[in-house]
Amino acid sequence: MRIDNANRLADKNAMVPTVPIEQWQNTIVTFFITYGFQMVGAVIILVVGALIARWLGNLTNKWLTRQHLEPPICVLMVRVVRLLVFGLAGVLALDKFGVQIAPLIAGIGVAGVGIGLAAQGVLGNVIAGLTIIFTKPFRVGEYIEMVGVNGQVTNIELFSTTLVHSDKSRIVIPNRKIVGEILHNCGNIRQLNLNVGIAYNSDVKGALATIHEILKANARVLKDPQPVVGIEALAGSSINVAVMPWVAVPDYGPAQLEIYEAIIEQFRARDIEIPFPQREVRLLEKASA
User: Chain-wide mean pLDDT for the chain?
Assistant: First the structure.
């Protein structure tokens, strides 16, 4: 019985079809003989295309830098040049394998239209970013106010613009939210709007001269344009003096604190009174009947 079972198993194994190793080897050898040169050529084309793309990108970057263009424009142009050159190399590599180029390009075009429809917001940011870069309504380093936010511009990219607020927080605004909106550009300087009150019996000319001295001594206050100092209003209990010097954008907060501190110290030293709010109340007796 054991001998019969062994014979049966041997017969079953003999009936299972097997692929000879020689056939696999012949298939692999035939593939490399048929497509080997095409593969080597395609790899060489891709390597050479990558090197040329890198070289042309560096050359384009140097030329654009000499033209003093905005950094986002330089980055965009360099990437486009590299992508075009490497894409051409990829098309030539596919042609080595007999791939039909025309249907491939048509398919890429159809896919591009679909992607464009699906990414309208992204494309809108890119178009708005290019508009900002070319029209230059503001530059890096300037202080701007728009769409309910304000800050110093630190970065202008194709998709968004980054501001830094006075509290060092960052504000990232999509570019499509900027184009078409009302923009207040302060440039690289800002004007302080300070106010101090002096008593009516004080020496007004002396107080104004003291404020001018304080502003002249402060290193943060710009000499050009000249600070504006003058009587702003005659209030109920004081003469209000407006103090409006110009400072660089980073000095806006510190300069305000330093000027107020110096005004208090100098006014106390020169007996210039900063009055408290006062009200005079008169009580009238009723006339006797």
Answer: 80
Distance CA 6, CA 140 (A): 87
21: left (phi over 0), alpha (psi -120 to 50) or beta: alpha
**Region of poorest pLDDT, from 3-12, 20-29, 125-134, 203-212:** 3-12
Closest among 196, 195, 210 to 271, alpha carbons compared: 210
For the full predicted model, state whether its pTM sits above 0.90: no
Which residue type occupies 218?
N
Q: Per the structure block, which two tokens stand in for 287?
A: 């006339």
Q: What are 122-155's pLDDT values in tens digits?
A: 778 888 888 888 888 998 889 999 878 899 999 8
Q: Per-residue DSSP letters for 40-72?
A: HHHHHHHHHHHHHHHHHHHHHHHHHHHTT--HH
Q: Is 198 helix (H, G, I), strand (E, B) or coil?
A: strand
Angle between helix 204-217 and 252-269 (nearest 10): 140
In the sheet where 239-244 sits, what is the strand order? 194-198, 239-244, 228-234
Give the span between the Cα atoms of 163 and 167, in whole angstroms: 11
Do residues 245 and 228 make contact, with C-beta atoms less than 8 angstroms apart? yes
The predicted structure's pLDDT at residue 213: 95
Between the CA atoms of 269, 270, 276 and 282, what dihedral angle is there, to the nearest 10 degrees? 140
Q: CA nearest 142: which of 185, 191, 183, 179?
A: 185
